Amino acid sequence: MRVFIVILSVLLLFCSCSYDVNEKICLYVSIPPHPWEIGGKPLWYTLKWTDGNEIKTRYIDENERQIKVYSKASQTVMIALYPLGRLNPFGGYYLPFSKSNHVQVSQQVGVLVSQFLTLDEFCRQSINFEAIKDKIDLLTNDVRLINFIKLKKDLNKNEVDNNSFKVLKEMTLYNCIIPSGLYTSENIFDGNFFIPENKIPKLTVTPGWHCYYNFEKEIEFKVYVDSENEKITTFLRSGVLF
Fold it and tell me: Can you tell me the distance from the alpha carbon of 175 to that of 105, in angstroms, rounded to the nearest whole number?
C-alpha cells in the first residue's frame, strides 16, 4: 500500500510539473478571400479571439493574410475575423490538445463564433463547441437558420437539450426598390443578384444580417431578417466601400 501511494504521488508530481494550465499556444490562421475583395482591393479586419476568460481584439491590416494568435492551450479558443470591422465574420476554433495549431476559418463557423462570443464568461469557457456544431449540422445545412436567442438562453442556464435547437424559416423579400445593377453578396452562400432597370428584386434570405454591394454605383444594400416576428428591414447606403 505504501509503495502504491509513493508511486501515485510521483505520478501526480510529474503531471503537475509537466502541465501548466496557463501555458500559451501559438495558433496560425490564414484569411481566405472575401467575396467583396476578389479581383479588387483587399479588406482590413477586426480580429477577436478568446484567451481564457478574456476576449481580445486586434486590427488586421488589409495586406496581412497570415496571422498568429496566442491563447491558453488548456481551453477552447474561438476566433472571429470581421471584414471592415462590421461585416459577418470568418470564424474558427481550436480545441485543447489538438494535434494541429493551424485553424481553418469559414463564414459558416463564423456565425457560431460571433454568437458564442456574446455568452457570459463562464458559459463561454465551458462550452462544448464541436458537439454543438455537430448537432446543428445534423439539423440544417445553413447555421444561420438556428434560433440563437433560444440556444444561447439555454446555454447560459446550462439547460441544453434537443429542444434548445430550433430551426427557423427563410423569408422572401418583395417590393423593395433599389438602383439597378449587380449586387455582390458578402456571403458565399447567398450568391449575387442582378437588378435590371425598373425591376424589383425578390430575395430569399435567412435570419440575421445580409449585405450586398454594387461596385459600379458604390451602393451598399443591407437586409435584416427577424424571422421570429416575420419582419424584414432594408437599408441603402451610398459611398466608397474601402
Answer: 36
Dist. CA 183–CA 214, nearest whole Å: 5
Please indicate, yes or no, if residue 19 is contained in any of the structural domains. Answer: no
pTM: 0.87
CATH number (domain holding residue 38): 2.60.40
Domain range for 60: 24-164
The pLDDT tens digits of the residues spanning 29-39 come to: 999 999 998 76
The single residue listed with the C-alpha cell 480545441 is 95
Residue with the three cell numbers 479571439: 49
141 shares its domain with 182? no
Instruction: Find out whether 133 and 109 touch, Cβ atoms under 8 Å.
Output: yes
Amino acid letter, 2: R
> Could you tell me where the DSSP H helices lie in the chain?
2-18, 107-116, 121-126, 129-139, 148-157
Same domain membership, residue 209 and residue 135: no
- The pLDDT tens digits of the residues spanning 135-187 come to 999 999 999 999 999 999 999 998 999 999 999 999 999 878 899 999 999 99
